[in-house]
Specification:
There is one protein chain. With 278 residues, the protein is mainly α. The chain is built from 11 helices and 2 strands, in the order ααααααββααααα. Helix content is 73%, strand content 5%. Helix 1 packs across helix 10 and helix 3 runs parallel beside helix 10.
Length: 278
């Protein structure tokens, strides 16, 4: 992965796939770095991944903003609550034993992937409209995207905040980006329409990873010219790849996006378990 053309190509594929499902692409990049650079410290691997995910999330968010599918109210709220966990996760990565954590987390991803794949179906907007917004912590949002499609959904705001804090903490520890957790949580537990969830998750990811990159930078994680080269090459490919992924998102049905997300979750979970046991 020290060839600039290869880095750009990999970055493009990561950007397209990550933006399509709102996951950032770290679940692909981290295992790839572990395979191609087995002696690279875990902290360096996650620092590189977070920087590339940040470039992906910012580019993808711009594309999703043009399609008007980002729920800014929810995104800003949830994004703000990922920040404390994100800072703590970066600071703790050098000290927290990851063996048991990886086994538990990898297993949870595989279980969640199985659940999503079995339950994958188009969301019933009528049922979502009838969700009670008067329950404790419940709010209702309405969005009309650029294509004229309207979305109305109710969700538990307090639950969303709790999930965001956890996601913020976990993401920098594993370097996979929080979208791979945030998207299924927003769809299954918060009742977000799939296309709104992927777009909003990407916006949240842009906020969270930018903070993580700043903390990594302050710790000197990017001072090595070789690391700068890898991050630059991948980012050059990720930025247009994210635009392409957002374009594909407008063309693919929500049911298929959920199934793709389930497969990616399973791959990420198995990757974590495999690397922990070897």
């Amino acid at each position: 992965m020290d060839n600039i053309f290869l880095l750009v190509l990999i970055g493009f594929l990561i950007g397209a796939s990550g933006t399509l499902i709102g996951a950032g692409g770290g679940f692909i990049l981290v295992p790839l770095l572990l395979i191609t650079h087995p002696k690279m410290p875990a902290a360096t691997t996650t620092a590189i991944s977070i920087a590339v995910v940040a470039a992906n999330a910012i580019s993808g968010s711009i594309a999703y903003a043009r399609s008007k599918r980002i729920d800014y109210k929810a995104g800003l709220l949830f994004g703000a609550f990922t920040i404390p966990g994100s800072i703590l996760g970066v600071l703790m990565i050098k000290y927290v034993p990851k063996h048991i954590f990886n086994i538990v987390f990898g297993s949870l991803l595989v279980i969640l992937a199985t659940y999503l794949f079995i339950k994958a179906k188009k969301q019933n907007e009528v049922l979502q409209k009838n969700n009670s917004a008067n329950s404790s912590g419940m709010v209702t949002h309405h969005i009309t995207d650029r294509a004229g499609d309207s979305f109305s959904y109710s969700f538990n705001q307090l639950l969303g905040i709790f999930i965001s804090i956890i996601v913020g903490f976990i993401s920098p520890l594993l370097g996979i980006g929080g979208g791979i957790i945030h998207v299924p949580a927003m769809v299954q537990w918060l009742n977000f329409p799939v296309h709104i969830a992927t777009a909003t998750s990407h916006f949240i990811l842009a906020i969270m990873t930018t903070v993580s990159v700043i903390v990594h930078f302050s710790q000197g994680s990017y001072h090595d010219p070789k690391i700068q080269f890898v991050v630059m090459g991948l980012s050059i490919g990720v930025i247009p790849g994210a635009q392409f992924g957002a374009f594909l998102s407008n063309k693919i049905k929500s049911k298929l996006i959920i199934k793709i997300l389930a497969v990616c979750l399973c791959i990420a979970g198995l990757r974590i378990l495999f690397l922990t046991m070897n």
